[in-house]
Amino acid sequence: IYFLEYLNHRIKVFDSAGTYLRSFGSYGGGCNQMSFPRQFQIFNDEIYIVNNGFSRISKLSLTGQCITSNFTSYTSPISIAVNDNYIFVGHTNDVISKYATANLAQTGFQYMSNVRYAPGMSFNSAGNRLIVASWHTNKIAEYTVSGNNLTYVNGTDGGSLSSANGKFNRAIDAVYDSSGNIYATDYYNHRIQKFNSSLVYQAKYGSYSKNSPFYYPWGIGIDSSDNIFVGDFRNHSIRKFNTSLALTASF
Question: Averaged over 97-104, what is the pLDDT?
Fold first, then answer.
């Protein structure tokens, strides 16, 4: 398990039982350094990470060694998603910039009319759909992927801040499971929510309480066995769930 520490500018590594193994990373603008990193992806056993403070994307080994890096075309990169051919990077100015997975060369950019500030995004297992958390519009938005082009297809009912089922009080990250279901962190509601592949609400875990057990859940990831891992920001913890949103471990 690779766990990103935003304020310590590093990644910590645990085994599958939650036992600490090692850490790597330090503050800075170098290839294998970090400055308030918001999101990373592991793809084909390589780490892709955005350096928010120095506007850089880097490809690292699983032990944190630099493979290659490139500066982003826009400032303040905050989110990243990777498939076989392309890397998509979200920025604070509602732009997604695009890069080649092989060498991080820029391939274009795209303004996101249905997203305003995208702190988290992920591909499905086929790499042909992208789910994006939209902080300012309180929704998650889905796009089809063709080459390096994104086309909006669906989204949850965003708008005003809400704690109702299927609504968000600041969506911050989202992932797919192997069946195409979608799980998203709902930051100020201190919960995660589950949607089916048509973005219809299915279930939730947590409530508007700082002891739910979440206290501002942030990043969310899923492994090849559909175990769901959530970074619990202010509790300094990791929560593990199954696809029924039953809590199975905390560490």
Answer: 96
74-91 as b/e: b if 16+ CB within 10 A: bebbbbbbbbeebbbbbb
CB count within 10 Å of CB 21 equals 10
The pair of three-digit structure tokens given for residue 66, joined into one six-digit string: 């630099």
pTM of the model: 0.94
Q: Name, in order, each residue with C-beta under 8 angstroms of 233's C-beta and a sequence gap of 6 or more.
A: 6, 215, 216, 217, 218
Amino acid at 8: N
Alpha-carbon span 143 to 151, nearest angstrom = 5
Q: What is the dihedral of CA 237, 238, 241, 246, to 10 degrees?
A: -10
The answer on pLDDT for 20 being more than 90 is: yes
Residue 160, classified by CB atoms within 10 Å of its CB into exposed (0-12), middle (13-18) or buried (19+), is exposed
101 DSSP assignment: T
CA gap 95, 89 in Å, rounded: 8
Residue with tokens 């859940």: 217
- Rounded alpha-carbon distances, angstroms, from residue 45 to 2, 97, 240: 12, 23, 21
